[in-house]
Amino acid sequence: MSSASAKTYLVTGASRGIGLELVKQLSVLPNTMVYAAMRKPFAISSPNNNIISIQLDQSSTSSVVAAAAQVPELDTLILNAAIGENEHLLDMTPERFAEYLDVNVVGPNRVVSALVPALLARKTRKIVYLSSSAGTISGQIGETWGLQGPYAVSKAAGNMMVVQWHNELSKREDGPSTVVTVHPGWVDTDMGRPFGEGSMNVVDAVEALVRLVQGLRTEDSARFLDWRGRGMAW
Ligand SMILES: NC(=O)c1ccc[n+]([C@@H]2O[C@H](COP(=O)([O-])OP(=O)(O)OC[C@H]3O[C@@H](n4cnc5c(N)ncnc54)[C@H](OP(=O)(O)O)[C@@H]3O)[C@@H](O)[C@H]2O)c1
After folding, report:
1. CATH code, domain carrying 203
2. pLDDT range class, residue 172, cuts 50, 70, 90
């Protein structure tokens, strides 16, 4: 497959869960090349032989810069990697809280900053940030279910970061970008599983995400969408 003509995707957090399934489903789309970015890279097979695994730890600037150096051109960046456990602000250490902010907020900004040149080298320029309904501030008032505390803070900050990326990229004269924040639904992964029965299986959830990503248009930029493409409350 020639990378010059293929639609090129990069997915962070591709080692498991939603990220790994995104890589698999994107790789079987026609004329596609997928960078699977992981902390500890391993090969992922694809019938099209079009998946490149690269090392990327978004808590490390040098790791992110080294990963970006391997990606000359990029159509769509999917910021999927995050940490999330059942923790609460008032009984956690400041160091652990700082780790959430570093991995889930500063981390995606490291990745976007490093990959802007590759995105600008193509016209597609889609950036998709995997957020959560936990990032909806009004929805968190009195909430007792799901990940809350530092995770919710980080996802609300991530939503704001998407709006700021949209603003900063739309000031440039390189042409439009499409930057969205997406709640993938409650999905049966290591992160979603501890909350009991009733989650979506990862294959179905990612099929919906892939449809959403493919259908994004410039007018969608700065929107907070769910996996079905419905608007979410900020
Ligand atoms: N599952 C749900 O119900 C749900 C609901 C709402 C939103 N989300 C969001 O959807 C996204 C994917 O969630 P998931 O359920 O697939 O989570 P997951 O199964 O816990 O997987 C998290 C991924 O992030 C990676 N990661 C963690 N820290 C990283 C770092 N410093 N640098 C690079 N990669 C790192 C992990 O890599 P390692 O294998 O190296 O740890 C793993 O690949 C997340 O942004 C999550 O917040 C999930």
Report:
1. 3.40.50.720
2. confident
